[in-house]
Amino acid sequence: MAESSARDFYDDLAHDYHLMFQDWDASMTRQAEALDGLVRASLGTGPHTVLDCACGIGTQAIGLALAGHRVIGGDLSPVAATRAATEAAARGTRLPTAAADMRQLPFKERSFDVVLCTDNSLPHLLTGPDLRTALLGMRRVLRDDGLLLITVRPYAETRRTRPTTTPLQVSQTRDGRVITFQLWHWHEDGERYDLEHVQLIPEAHTWQVRVRRTTYWALTPPELTAFVTEAGFTGITWHTPAASGYYQPVLTARRAP
Asked: Could you list the residue ranges that cross the membrane (predicted)?
């Protein structure tokens, strides 16, 4: 992973991340309902101990905590992790967080029923060795038969079409409309791309333009399935957005004893 790029990207974006949502709290609830459904279908009603190892500003972690689970958040960005804990407290729930690289999770073995790595976070790892290290660490902190849950972009189609931009996304805030889009610059290998995240934020009678940059590895489902299998997980299943209700494809797997 281009560590400085990913950390700098999310440190800088943490203050504005919520501006991508029409209603951030509604998105928290909607995403938590989808993830909670997958957790309960695998492990029963719970509540369960959950590690969100790339929690960002807390979109998924806060929603799951409000749903009754015992959630801990970790993120490479200390700014994002701190904001997640603050936002959780403001909503009447508790979310302990830590600045933690998913390749070096600072938690005891078999500490969690569930490990989440959502919102296309895993593809920030740009090499096979880094990906293997992260997945082995997630397995280490899961209890026997615990649940791994990863969400990524639909990269099978993306690798074929190699888009260079995303559609404009317009969110209404109390200060006006915020426009967000991305520019993608593909590497020669056809698998990795540099992303420019562009936000236009209204300011007085003009626009403030904010650009952040990071890099992703566009892992296809068969590639990610192979890495997860190699790390010692079984029962690997892919769930489409139509089936799960989550906005990205979801991989679920169980920790083999």
From this structure: none
According to DSSP, the β-strands at 250-255 and 142-151 are antiparallel
Other C-beta atoms within 10 Å of 132: how many? 15
User: What's the Rg (C-alpha) of the chain?
Assistant: 18
Query: Hey, CA dihedral for 232, 131, 138, 27, is it positive or negative?
Result: negative
For 234-252, write each residue's pLDDT tens digit: 999 999 999 999 999 999 9
- Three-state DSSP state, 233: strand
Q: Compute CA distances 35 → 29, 73, 107, 195, 246, whole Å.
A: 10, 15, 22, 27, 7
pTM for the complete prediction?
Answer: 0.94
Q: Which domains does the chain have, with CATH numbers?
A: 3-154+218-255 (3.40.50.150), 157-216 (2.20.25)
Could you read off the pLDDT of 162-203 as tens digits, one per residue? 999 999 999 887 778 899 999 999 999 999 999 999 999 988
Closest C-alpha to 251, from 124, 130, 155: 155
All residues at 6 or more sequence positions from 200 whose CB lies less than 8 Å from its CB, including other chains:
178, 179, 180, 207, 208, 209
Indicate the pLDDT class of residue 4, thresholds 50, 70 and 90: low
3-state helix, strand, coil in the chain (%, to 5): 35, 30, 30
Residue 3 one-letter amino acid: E
